[in-house]
Amino acid sequence: MSSRNKPRVYDQSNNLLCVLDKATDIGYTQVYNNIWTARFKLPEADAKNKFCEPFNYVEIFEDGKRVELFRIIKDAVTKDENNLAVIEYECEHVITTLLDDPLFKFHQIGNIGVFTREVMEYILNHQTERRWVLGACEFSHQFLYKWESDNLLAALFSVPRPFMDDWHFIYDTTVYPWVVNLVRASHQVDCEVRYKKNMRGIERQRDSTNLVTRLIPLGYGEGDNQLTIASVNNGRNFIDADTIGIWGQKTAIWTDRRFENAENMLATGQAMLERLKNPWLCYTVSAIDLFKYTRQDFDKLAEGRMVRVVDNSLGINVDTRIIEIDKPDVTKANVTVVIENHDRNVAGSLSALAERARINDTHAQGHESLLAIPFIDNAQPEFPALFDFFIPANLVNINQAIMRIQLLPFRANSRAVRGGGGITQSTTNGGGTTQSTTNGGGTTQSTTNGGGTTQTSTADGAASPQATSGPSSATSASSAHALATIMSALGAVNTLYTSGTGSHRHGIASTSLNHTHTVITEPHTHGIAHTHTVTVSIPNHSHNLTIPAHSHNVTIPAHSHSVTIPAHSHSVTIPNHVHDIEFGIVQGGRASSISIRVDGTLIPVQSNLNEVDIAPFLRRDGSGRIVRGVWHRLEIVPNQLTRISAHVFLRIFTNSRGGHNL
Question: What pLDDT does residue 510 have?
Fold first, then answer.
């Protein structure tokens, strides 16, 4: 064998270790959308056996062309009759490196807005060592996927299972990290196996054991809570194949509790029914690999290609897909081709459900729970009663959601509370001017009676003082004035004339005390010093004052008053103090009507508040299901101050995921 067809061994870091130049019986098996295998033998005495350790990589070639990259997983030693020992190695495609990493516990991704590429990248991102990356992805579905403690390879292979279209995994291991591509499988006939051309022999098998024309898919849960497709299939929990008129109604129940979404389960069921609606046909063809000689693409037999199988003697003329290619020796042209009208693994999945059911029994499926949530509070129109309750994300079904409401009298638990002192100050601005009305005024008269006589005291009289003697010159004017003053005080009427020097006379006229003096002086001079003494006696007397009856008129003219108050503030000091609490329940009024909002939606007026169905009004997602993993709100608005007692009662079915061991 040419060295270009010899296997090459690499360590797990992709470093070339050796070329197995003594390898024999080099062969491989390619399986459509499944794990490929390879095998080779080495003499036990070959020193290169030391490089063939488990999980080292082996590169297989055929006619100088690289077949694929595998990793060693098993070896066995045998001896022939000549006591020659050989070691046979079995290998798997390196896609199995994804078996090394798990999706531990529960994982969920997909649904609306999350496409196939994102799902596949999510899986590949969980590799401990990033050996694989996603290349082409020709699908953009939005299915919801859930895995629980699966390995990455099983999760990756499960991604296209709900697809109605055929798919094909294609690998590129000539680069690193290696590349996985998910493409649409071709439906064009690419090659041919024909009797007397490249067909050496053919075997046909037809198996109707698993033929199904009506499929009833069942998913997660149990009893009334088990998932069906009725909600997304016009109320029907089954799907029919278009061959039901040919084969009759052949009903099968397909239970896979991994499914928790009805849409995903319906799509997978339709894809499965498409493969089960006809009897399973399998052709095992012994053929000659003409491609080794012609190098024509139409002669190339490979897994996943559409092939036309023609054997006129058996009446066989069918176009179908190559499911498996087995080449026991790359140096020879003999090849075995397995052709099926559908993957028997799909057909066998129904018979394998019993085994799968035992696996499902190890997983908790959940149970129905009765959940009562109470709420009691005072409320009034301005401050409605707000009641929030949580619906868990792992809740599978909501079987019932009702609310009971009671309207009770408003309730308080005390009449007074403890308080403290403080200083309260009014605003410092203020003041101003206030003016009264400008009309007004008028005349006010006192009483008209009144009047009377008032008598002075009867005190004694007094003697008039004596004038002092003056000089020998003529009498001075001041003396005359003094005399006049005295006379006036005595009530006398006097006339006094003085002049300069010359002869004069003094005349005094008197009637009792009332008298007058007439003094006529001619111009003269006095050369004789003298004195005058005037004595006036005032006898005891009294005065009578008579006030006749009279009245007074007071006139107040029209006027106004202006009062100005300056800007000022008042400080009120309340000393620190306490109030004793007076305990006791005090009840008030009760509302006569209420309005109810559920997640912001005003629901119709309820005549029976003992059983208000709130399920139709709870917030829904795009698929019409009540939103999980969020808080929902109830709002109760009374028409007056009242006390509200409410209870929400839920019948729910939950699974056992999403919690923690706290």
Answer: 46
